[in-house]
Amino acid sequence: MSVVTDSPAHSSGSDDFISYLNDALDASSPDSSADEEAETQDEFEDVSRNKRRKLESTEETEGSTSEGIMEHKLVVAESSVKVDVCTHPGSFGEMCIRCGQKLDGESGVTFGYIHKGLRLHDEEISRLRNTDMKKYLFSKKLYLVLDLDHTLLNTTILGHLSSEELHLLNETDSLEDVSKGSLFKLEHMHMMTKLRPFVRTFLKEASEMFEMYIYTMGDRPYALEMAKLLDPQGEYFNSKVISRDDGTQRHQKGLDIVLGQESAVLILDDTEHAWMKHKNNLILMERYHFFASSCRQFGFNCKSLAETKSDENETDGALAKILEMLKEVHCTFFDKLQGDLVDRDVRQVLSSVRGKILSGCVIIFSRINHGALPTLKRIAEQMGATCLMELDPTVTHVVATDAGTEKSRWAVKEKKFLVHPRWIEAANYFWQKQPEENFVVKKTTNPL
Amino acid sequence: MFFHIVLERNMQLHPRYFGRNLRDNLVSKLMKDVEGTCSGRHGFVVAVTGIENIGKGIIRDGTGFVTFPVKYQCVVFRPFKGEILEAVVTMVNKMGFFAEAGPVQIFVSNHLIPDDMEFQTGDMPNYTTSDGSVKIQKDSEVRLKIIGTRVDATEIFCIGTIKDDFLGVINDPATV
Fold first, then answer.
1. Which runs of E-coded beta strand occur in A21-173?
2. Over the Cα atoms of chain A, what is R_g?
3. What is the rounded radius of gyration, in angstroms, for the C-alpha atoms of chain B?
4. pLDDT tens for residues A140-178?
5. Chain B contact for A164, CB < 8 A?
6. Hey, what long-range contacts does A170-178 have (CB within 8 A, 24 or more apart)?
7. What is the pLDDT of residue A394?
8. CB-based burial of residue A135 (10 Å sphere; 0-12 exposed, 13-18 middle, 19+ buried)?
9. What burial class does residue A85 get, using C-beta atoms within 10 Å of its C-beta: 0-12 exposed, 13-18 middle, 19+ buried?
10. Whether the predicted interface score ipTM is above 0.95
């Protein structure tokens, strides 16, 4: 190859290192370009660009002949060209985070909640998820995505407070020491927020089993304010607060911007239809309506908790029950499942725990609203119950809204349980079979 | 890198400011308009140090505003690719860390952090070497090399690396 004979290295020899370098650098300058030397020049440009790497390799071969150096230089130039090709794992301000090149592609997912302008591409996201997975599984932690409104707290606009709730304006807790209070007035946002009872204990105990994220349909300033109220020290949700501005789809929440494997994520939310793609990871939460505006939003005409000056039970409320259930799922995942940690799937654990709630129950429905029936059947079957269409001696529960129907009277006669559909919904929310005596059906029609 | 350069700008002044204090009003308006802005060519204008020349004002037709061409000296900050900078770490996470050198936001991805430094999570997330001798956490000072810059209307973004020789932590906040 002409390269070998034309190179200055060949002429200068291995000991004249400085002149060799000078020659190499001079060759790459514009005035020394010629057609014959074009090939050589490209190599020398590679050489000067990776001068440091080449320096190391030529130092090693200093004792050998100049030809030896030449071959080594060719090898180094080729290998260094390969290393330079960057996979562009992500971009910050539209520059690749690894090589600094300008990227204008739209591939990848924006992670604006971590820092403005940060985008990560798909291979990088999967790589991060995998390394994270191993680390968290070793420390026995799964992921938990928490919704804010009606799940952990209830917020109302100050202008929407009903007349019977105005007394709350004088009962708000100080914003200086947030860890003691639960009712906060946020003047600059014209809002008042009430944290759900038991939420602080819940967060503290859940943080030992889960890596927690906040995912809300509110905007980013609201999400950050709420995170400050729930987590004043910044120890649970540091740069893990996702708002609707960060989601990739409108009106839908997704796990694509959560840096955790889907098989290890649990979601706690009161709205099922926001998580259409991840229903198997979802734990549905009973809504928390403290303020009247929240009750009215969902069409309830009863008095709100604030108006009746009462609140959910602290140790026996929804959060406490869900915490027990989360502990059970966590324990089952880590201690009772067989196989490699990475192959286990928390969704399977969830469905098996869910399937035990009403196992052994054989249910038949009577006079249920046609629109609600399919959902009710589905929920009951997910919880392990068997749903029949016809009366049968194996039936254990009759679910009806009216105690006067034929099936209801049969239930009373055969000493079977006669319960209101809310018995099924309560089991779904509390993850436990509820005592049937609390869901007695009243007679609405006169017995024939 | 900081530069001390002369820039020119056409300032529009409302007639209410005319009078004895015309020049002072013009200078204070200039400072309010220009300090803290960013341009692709000059970078971030840090401070106006002096006025070199104020030209004759031209009255605009239609409105009563008068346009003065003002030449002023200012200190600008512009990061360059390949430059070595000292920066203060603002946020550490599993993807790397974010640092600030004045108005410039720099991101050092974990691909460009030496392989012997591992990410430790916790309430003070940090990158530590295996023997624990070197730690990068919030408020650490690091020396890094810029490998890419991008200038926006109000901000400058940079990508940096600490994977080369002589780069990394200068000052450990825990020991200070």
1. 90-92, 95-96, 109-110, 118-120, 142-146, 153-157
2. 33
3. 22
4. 888 999 999 999 999 988 888 888 888 888 888 877 777
5. no
6. A178/A228, A178/A229, A178/A232
7. 84
8. middle
9. exposed
10. no
What is the set of domains in chain B, with CATH numbers?
2-77 (3.30.1490.120), 84-171 (2.40.50.140)
Asked if B111 lies within 8 A of A102 by C-beta distance, the reply is no
Inter-chain touch A115–B98, beta carbons under 8 Å: yes
Q: Any chain A CB within 8 A of the CB of B92? A: no
Structure confidence at residue A28 (pLDDT): 55
Phi, psi of A100 (to 5 degrees): 80, 0
The rounded distance, in Å, linking the Cα atoms of A197 and A191 is: 19
Q: Is the Cβ pair B93, A239 closer than 8 Å? A: yes
Q: For residue B12, what are its two tokens?
A: 């529009």
Return d(Cα B30, Cα A33) in angstroms, integer. 50
Q: Are A300 and A320 in contact (CB under 8 A)?
A: no
- Give yes or no for B112 touching A (CB within 8 A): yes
In total, chain B counts a number of residues equal to 176
Are the Cβ atoms of A115 and B94 closer than 8 angstroms? no
Give SS3 for A242.
strand
Q: Which residue has the tokens 């799940």?
A: A151
In terms of CA atoms, which chain A residue is nearest residue B90?
Answer: A115
Task: Name the minimum distance, in Å, from the CA of A235 to any CA of chain B.
Answer: 5
Residues near A197 by beta carbon (within 8 Å), at least 6 away in sequence: A182, A311, A312, A313, A314, A317, A319
Average pLDDT over residues A80-105: 74
Banded pLDDT at B49 (limits 50, 70, 90): very high
**How confident is the model over A287-299, as pLDDT tens digits?**
888 888 888 888 7
For residue A17, the model assigns a pLDDT of 58
Phi, psi of A66 (to 5 degrees): -65, -30
d(CA A24, CA A45): 8
In this complex, do A92 and B123 lie within 8 Å of one another by their Cβ atoms?
Answer: no
Residue range B50-64: mean pLDDT, rounded: 91
